[in-house]
Amino acid sequence: MRILVWLSWWVDSAVSAGLLLEQWHEVVGGFMINYIADEWDCPTETDLMEAKKVATHLWIELYTFDYREEYERRIIAYIYSEYEKWRTPNPDVFCNNLIKFDIFMEEALGLWFDAIATGHYAQIKHVDTEYILKKWIDPEKDQSYFLSRLTEYQRSHAIFPIGHLKKSEVRVIAERMSLPNAKRKDSQWLCFIGKVSMKEFLEKRISKKPGNILDMNGKIIGEHDGAFSYTIGQRKWIGVGGGPARFVVEKNVKNNTITVGWDEDIELYKNTLIATEWLWSSKNPPPLPYVGKWKIRYRQEDQDVTIDSWDNNCIHVTFLHPQRAITNGQIFTLYSPDGFLLWSGIIE
Fold first, then answer.
1. Beta-sheet pairing, 158-159 with 115-117
2. Label partner for 241 (CA 20 to 30 A): which of 7, 291, 299, 335?
C-alpha cells in the first residue's frame, strides 16, 4: 500500500512509519501546520524540525500541509463558541474527525495514497463489511475515546500500526530503530496549540466578566474573572484559598456565578444525562435493552450502563450509581463488553 503517515512530535508516529516500512509499504511522512502563536511556547516549529529528522532517518519524503485557516474555522472558533455558551468542549476529539481524518485524509486520497496512518493507541477491526474501532490493549492509555467521532468511511482509510503494542514496547522499537525522537517525552499540551493554560487561551478573545464565587449555602466567598473558563469538577485555579480543596459544582449563566463545594457534595454527582449528535459505529445498532460499558471522560474507568431507549435526536441514560462531574460539551462513549466502540454523543 501507499501510505501517508502523520508525523507528529510523538515517538508513536515515528515508530508507526518505521513499522510500515518494515512491512514493505510505500511510506511518506506528512506534517500538518495547524497553529502558530508567538505569545507562548507553541510547539509547531520545533515539532516540524523533529519530523524532518525522523523522515531523514527513515529515508522517506516529508510533505507539509498548511491547515491554519481550516483549523481556525473548525477547531479554534468551536472552542471559543462552546466556552462562550459555558460548555466545556473537547477539541482533541474534534481535531481528529475534522482535521486529521477529514481534510488531511482527503488530501492524501487525492494524492493517490491508499490510506493514512497515525500513532494512535487504538485498533480498527474489519468485521464483516464494516470497519469498527476497538480499544487498545492497555486500558490506561487507550485513545479510542479521542477517535470516537470518526465515521465508518474515515475508519476504512485509517491505519494504526501500533494498536497491538504496549507503550513500553513502542519505546523499545524506537530504540532499536535509533529514531532521533526515541526518548522525547509525550506532550500534554492542548491539541496543536502548545503550552498554555485554557484560561489564558480563552482570555485572548472572550472578555472577562467578573462574578461571585458561592459556597454550597449561597454565601459569597470569592470572585471570578469569567465563569466561562471553569468546568464542573475543576479543583485547581478556582481562586478560593484556605482549607481542603474545593471543586466547581455548578455554573449559573443567568446570575454569572459559580458554586464550589467539597468532593463529597451530592450536587457534584448526577445519575442521568442526555447526549445528542450521536454517532453509531455500526450500521446495525444492538437490540434494546442493551447492557454495555461507557465513559464520560478519557481516563475514567469503564462503567456499566443499561440503555433502554433512544431516538433520532438524543439518548437518555440512567446510571446505576451517580457519576461525578458530568459536563456539558464533553463526549459520552458506549462500548460493547469486549471493547468495541458502539456509539458516541455530546453531553447536553
1. parallel
2. 299
What confidence tens digit (pLDDT) does each residue in 85-98 have? 889 999 999 999 99
Taking residue 73's Cβ as centre, other Cβ atoms within 10 Å add up to 12
Domains and CATH numbers, the chain: 2-176 (3.40.50.620), 208-263 (2.30.30.280), 267-347 (2.40.30.10)
The angle subtended at Cα 57 by Cα 54 and Cα 58, nearest 5°, is 85
Which helix (H) or strand (E) segment holds residue 88: the answer is none
Residue type, 259: T
In whole angstroms, how far apart are CA 283 and each of 62, 132, 280, 286, 311?
Answer: 36, 10, 7, 10, 15
In contact, 222 and 239? CB cutoff 8 Å: yes
* Separation CA 69–CA 32 (nearest Å): 12
Contacts of 33 (CB under 8 A, 6+ apart): 44, 48, 64, 65, 66, 67, 68
Q: What is the C-alpha separation between 252 and 86, in angstroms, rounded?
A: 9
Q: What amino acid positions are annotated as catalytic residues?
A: 95, 191
State the pLDDT at residue 38. Answer: 65
pLDDT tens string 97-143: 999 999 999 999 999 999 999 999 999 999 888 899 999 888 778 99
Whole-angstrom distance, CA of residue 9 vs CA of residue 48:
8
Give pLDDT tens digits for 200-228. 888 888 888 899 999 999 999 999 988 88
Contacts of 215 by beta carbon, 8 Å cutoff, 6+ apart: 221, 259, 260, 261
Q: Is the pLDDT of residue 189 over 60?
A: no
Residue 192 identity (one-letter amino acid): F
From the number of C-beta atoms within 10 Å of its C-beta (0-12, 13-18, 19+), residue 36 rates as middle
Asked if 94 and 82 touch (Cβ cutoff 8 Å), the reply is no
Helices and strands (H and E) in the chain: how many: 9, 17
Tell me the C-alpha distance between 332 and 247, whole Å.
22
